[in-house]
Amino acid sequence: MFVDLLREGAMVMNCKGLVWLGLLTAGCWLMTTLAHGQPRGSTPDYKNPKLPVDRRVEDLLSRMTLEEKVAQLQCLIREVEGTDFIKKEGIGNLGCILRQYKAKEAAEKLNRIQKFMLEKTNLGIPVIMHDEALHGLVANGATSFPQAIGLAATWDTALMERVARAIALETKSRGIRQVLSPVVNIARDVRWGRVEETYGEDPYLTARMGAAFCKQFEQLGVITTPKHYSANLGDGGRDSNPVHFSERLMREIYFPGFKACFQEGGATSVMAAYNSYDGLPCSANYWLLTEVLRNEWGFTGFVVSDYGSVAGILDMHRTAANPKEAAAQAINAGLDVELPNVYIYGQPLLEAVREGLVSEETLNEAVRRVLRAKFRTGIFDNPFADPKEATRVNDCAEHRALALEAARKAIVLLRNEDGVLPLKKETKTVAVLGPLADEVRLGGYSGYGVKTISVLEGMKKVRPNVRVLYAQGCVLSHPVLPAIPSEYLIPAGGKPGERGLRGEYFANKDLAGEPALVRIDPVLHFDWAGDGPDPSLPTDCFSARWTGKLISPVTGRVRLGVSTDDGVRLYLDGKLLVDMWVDRSVTTDVVTVQMEKGREYDLKIEYYENLGYAFASLGWDIQPEEKKLLDEAVAAAKQADVAVVVVGIIEGEGRDRARLDLTPDEEELIKAVAATGTPTVVVLQTGSAVTMSNWLSEVPAVVQAWYGGEEGGTAVAEMLWGDVNPGGKLPITFPLSVAQLPLYYNTKPTGRGYDYVDLSGKPLFPFGHGLSYTTFAYSNLRITPERIDPTGTATVSVDVENVGPLAGDEVVQLYIRDVVASVARPLKELKGFRRITLKPGERSTVSFRLGPEELAMLDRDLKLVVEPGAFEVMVGSSSEDIRLRATLEVVAR
To answer: What's the pLDDT score for residue 590?
Structure first.
């Protein structure tokens, strides 16, 4: 209307230019003032750090075009410097592109990117840079702490807070302001490959650890993203399979960890899961993302997708017919940001808004959440990093010492017959054996580029005067064929006598253009995990071509196998024998060929990696070295006073397990070493449970060391020698057999029995289990008061005394059972724990609170209530080792 008045005024003035210009100028000033509350040329409200966040958000939102709004909901996970990927509209998020750089270089690169965003995009909105940080930032030169399941095994929330703060400091120092962590899914089936990333099977322990983690990050202005909301462990222990849990089960078991992260830890983001829940994709589930998360819990942060999960609505779950519908389903349900690249939240989302499938207000609300995070965390006003601080803090001496402390506290002593541990002072020779004795595995989503200590190195370091023998014993690998040794490979274009294959690596997944890296790879067997082959290459979306000649050592039929996590092609003498150019988890493709001894065959392997895990191997079924490795280990054990066998498993994202045994070669190694008569200690470096029926009776001691971080080997050695007394406890149940799964301690009562015809229902090692080199006595359990009303609080106290010969740690665990309730309740539930350190003869009183939060349950109508009646209170050293019991009475008001 104002423009019409201007036009009429211009006509009346009969085109007197100066008057028209004045009116036009005044009109523009007025329109700007009405729209933004300030004259043109002044500092916009959104750039004024003194104004309230919400006012700044609304001012910025009012200035944005539809394209600029959608851009804030987008992410890129690719190199952006020197490219045209970032348009004038900007981009809201970038992910995982700083991993390959040392701390200083990462900070400097981040600063260049943010400078570009501020100066070259229309509105100068900085990006949120994200990465992973489960147990240390996934980056070159960042401190690596024990894997998440190991941190849970410490049962020490104060330690968790210190570890989280150290990780957050390193993360922020590089300019990374969002972490896709922690994983607070409940690991009730240990076949799941991602158990290592969790805090175990219990909702209470998970909630305490998750909240402690989030709190420290958020206080430093780094956004935490608990995942994968809310359950993504399906039937058979398989990752991201459909979930059909009842609402009661979700609320009792799978929600508490997330709720604690938001309401206690202050988490300001959350990741939706890949899978469907009750038939609807979690990334398009209104009940999960809006009704529960926002309306019930009051969550005000932003929801991100798991990598590619919005496209999964269309491609996997097929609840949408086209990309526009997928975009509408996701954003209307409450999913704000698509990770890691623009698949659906690009043109499809724009079209969905323009066609009315998504209201502009729904879009605006999603953008508000992202902008609010940028203002509240300080990213908008200070998006830059300090390269000097990044250099100082990453893997500094203080953090390395903390990593060692955490590794010590994470170790769980599972078995110790005949006092084999700690090792005797008079021990002169130790055989350190096994595929992981001199290899450090940090677990999924780990950093790299720091000094790591293996068990072998740790044993030599902790007792330099003791003779240490080493033998590998066997190879731990994927269930793939043994890698072809370099002596049978000749690289294309190689020098005379050179062995291996010529590797050409490309910074794209299409083998396109010139290679970014060319080198000779002696053996084609790479487990890059979440990293890339070289700092010059991206960690995702790369490809490789290996060429050369293969020399056959035999005449006859030979099985060749290529194992990759994504696409692969295998050519032999120009013939395409394997053509699997598709995304997939680690899979082995085997072909059988007729070969002649000494003949050279032209060989070419092409490989690409899309997102996530990276693995590539070329093997065959000729194993001349395997028996030699075993014989060497047996010979070393015979010369030693004690043998330490370090073994592990294959697990991780996309690598769920159908069997829980160690590999056959590892079990053969353990039994062969034990058969020498030398006392044998088995050290498990795993992130999940292992079944042991084939060998446990033959060894006196078993240690669960998890993935212990960069100082894990030192901690194991100190524990074996008795310099450190183990005090960790299991956060998961170890079953006797895979046939018992799923198996967890807080089951509800059965209608019949717990055992099988041919197997006990009891676990091998229960939740909360862990031995010590000393002994703790429990006494004087009291509850004050013994009777409370449903709103009241009681204090449970118990005296714990170290009655053994050594100082040590004990984790005092409090469980309850609602004796009679309106619905069936668990046999026991963890409701408190405390890790204490006691000297010999020292006694401590440990107290816990039991109030409405601990005693409440969901009644028949799913309403949270504290029902009057008796509660059995149990205190002990594990879920099975209950030392004392008492009763708390809740009486009606």
So the answer is: 84
8 Å CB contact between 113 and 82? no
pLDDT (tens digit per residue) in 840-878 = 999 999 999 999 999 999 999 999 999 999 999 999 999
Return the C-alpha torsion angle 336, 340, 346, 348, nearest 10: -80
Q: With beta carbons less than 8 A apart as the criterion, state whether 385 and 686 touch.
A: no
Number of H helices, E strands in the chain: 22, 38
Closest by Cα among 586, 616, 668, 669 to 505? 616
3-state secondary structure 782-849: EEECCEECCCCCEEEEEEEEECCCCCEEEEEEEEEEECCCCCCCCCCEEEEEEEEEECCCCEEEEEEE
d(CA 518, CA 546): 10
CB 544 within 8 A of CB 564: no
Token readout for 336 is 């704000």
- In the chain, the amino acid numbered 411 is I
Residue 132 per-residue DSSP state:
-
525 SS3 class = strand
Q: 597 in the Ramachandran plot: left (φ > 0), alpha (ψ -120 to 50) or beta?
A: beta
pTM for the structure as a whole:
0.87
CB 324 within 8 A of CB 298: no
Report pLDDT digits (tens) over 751-786.
Answer: 888 999 999 999 999 999 999 999 999 999 999 999
Q: What is the amino acid identity at position 184?
A: V
Structure confidence at residue 40 as a pLDDT band (50, 70, 90):
low
Could you give the angle at which helices 360-376 and 323-333 cross, rounded to 10 degrees?
60
